[in-house]
Amino acid sequence: MSHYCKICGGYKANEKFSGKGHAAHICKKCARLPIEKQNEMQTVNRLMGLPFWLSKDQRSWLEKMMESQNEEIRNAAEWAWESRFAPMTEPDDDTDPDDDTDPDELAFDFEPEAETDDEWNDVDIDPYELPF
C-alpha cells in the first residue's frame, strides 16, 4: 500500500519513508531538502489542491499567499485565484450585426436523398414484440 508525501504530493512505496517519515508523511527524498524548500513545496502543493469553492478561511489564506515574497508561491496563488475568480467577460462575437449576408448563401449544396414520410408510415411495429 502506498503512502502520501505531503511535501511533494506523491504517493510512494512504503520503503521510501523512514520510521519517523511515516508519521510525518514526509518521504526520505523530501526529508533531505532544506526546511525552506520543504515549506515552499508543501504550500504550492496545498495551493494546487484547493477545492473550487473556497471557505472564508481558505479564501483569506489564498489572498495572503498572493502577497508572498516567494515568487513560486505567489505565481501558484495567483493562478489559483484566477482559476476561481476570473472576471466575467463577454465572449468575442465574430458576427457583425450590419452584415446583410443571407445565411442560405453560405449553406452547402446538400440535398438529402428523396425519402418520404410515407415509407416509414407503411411499417407496422408492435411495441410489445420488440426484442428489447
What number is the mean pLDDT? 79
The biggest beta sheet is recorded as: 2 strands, antiparallel
Tell me the structural class.
Answer: mainly alpha
Total strands: 2
Distance between the termini: 44 Å
Which residues form runs of ≥5 with pLDDT under 50?
A: none
Radius of gyration: 30 Å
Strand content: under 5%
Tally of helical segments: 7
Give the SSE string. EEHHHHHHH
Question: Roughly what percent helix?
Answer: 40-55%
> Which sequence of strands runs across the widest sheet?
1-2
> What would you call the shape?
flat
Protein model, in words:
Among the domains are: 1-32, no CATH class; 34-86. The chain is mainly alpha-helical. The chain has seven helices and two strands, in the order ββααααααα.
List descriptors:
mainly alpha, 44% helix, 2 strands, two-stranded antiparallel ribbon, 132 residues, 7 helices
Please specify the SSE layout and strand pairing:
Layout: E1 3-4, E2 11-12, H1 19-24, H2 28-31, H3 35-48, H4 56-65, H5 71-85, H6 103-106, H7 117-121
Antiparallel strand pairs: 1-2
Helix pairs in contact: 3-5
In brief:
The chain has helices spanning 19-24, 28-31, 35-48, 56-65, 71-85, 103-106, 117-121, and strands at 3-4, 11-12. With 132 residues, the protein is mainly alpha-helical.
